[in-house]
């Protein structure tokens, strides 16, 4: 038997991911695009409902307040998605609520001046205004770093090697949102996981009118089937004698969203009243804005790969961060109860459907705005049990994480230096946040516990984020450890052409602003 040729053993590195049906600027038919856009909207509902469901009761709000916050979060998310896809990075990314803001928000909720208010509704309104004020001030961090191109300058220290742990942990770092949540109701979570994998992977070659229907619409089909199954279990009284917690996770009638939702309601700025400003709250919130910035940087790199585009040039990335800052400012003005970031699950769906079209995401933004105004209809879809979403996250977060690992193809993984940097930054990116989580759940406060509340929030927020820890460790090691002699091992010869807009001719196709706006904002 003849010895295999080198090209038969290894695979050549690819600038753009192959195997996608539609890339960033190619579009399916209008009918297919609308159906895919609706699918992205359904997926975005998971986080949009989970965050207010967790926070609003802590603030003293009732079911009616929760519905209004969900509507507002979706409405502003739709606007931010349109702004990002038109004028920001122009990548097919859904902008939604972020979990990164939890520490400073819970710190505001537990502020002694707010806890003293006895009337729950007054306490809810005052807490919401305090969160709004903090978000408005903190948004300036991303606006300044983005539009001044400071983040573009910082990104020059990034290499393919340094980005691998960051992008990977954008997906892997959310492991506690996957099976730990799906496992709360295994009779719904496991069938959903099996059905989604079966449709999207094993039955992907089934076609109807030359469209791989089961692969492309695996999410919406499996959600419909399992949601109907969960409703059947609820209606048949399967959970009647189960503990309250089990009923909450499994029943389809526990969200109390449909009965509380108005038929039509348009969210508007300052709808909760005038925001209140506190320096301590704002400083604490700035840490969450920094974490959102770092997580979004990794998410944009993953989205560019799954949209079959080249990595976004430094100034495009910075421009996107600037618009994301505007998005957090809108979050503060409208009162969405949290800041915004790139939706990781929706990036995973680009890979699962093999459709990275920008138009599809813009249509999903239209659905987010439309159904947030038509309250009853939006509330119907929003009452899907969280365990269904968590089962899908097990696939989609893993897909995004593997996109991060794919950047290793541009580096030399036979180098001990590279093995050390990737291994240590991946491990610490998972281990340090886990330590902070365990400490917080045992002591009911983070490891940083001084008299300066804003300082505690700052440190606890930074080190609870896996991508942020990974970026600090990986970029520091990559730029200090034998960096002069290892440019080729780090993947810099490949990376350098994507740093500037004119470094690669394809950048113009993917990242040029619409309406000929590049005349006024010439790329660097």
UniProtKB/TrEMBL annotation:
A Pfam family: Xan_ur_permease
Residue ranges of the TM segments: 38-57, 69-87, 93-109, 130-151, 157-175, 182-202, 217-239, 360-382, 388-407, 419-436, 458-477
Topology in membrane: Multi-pass membrane protein
UniProt keyword annotations, A-Z: Membrane, Transmembrane, Transmembrane helix
Family statement: Belongs to the nucleobase:cation symporter-2 (NCS2) (TC 2.A.40) family.
Subcellular location(s) per record: Membrane
One GO CC term on file: membrane
Main location: membrane
Glycoprotein keyword on record: no
MF terms in GO: transmembrane transporter activity
Protein name: Nucleobase-ascorbate transporter 2
InterPro entries, sorted: NCS2
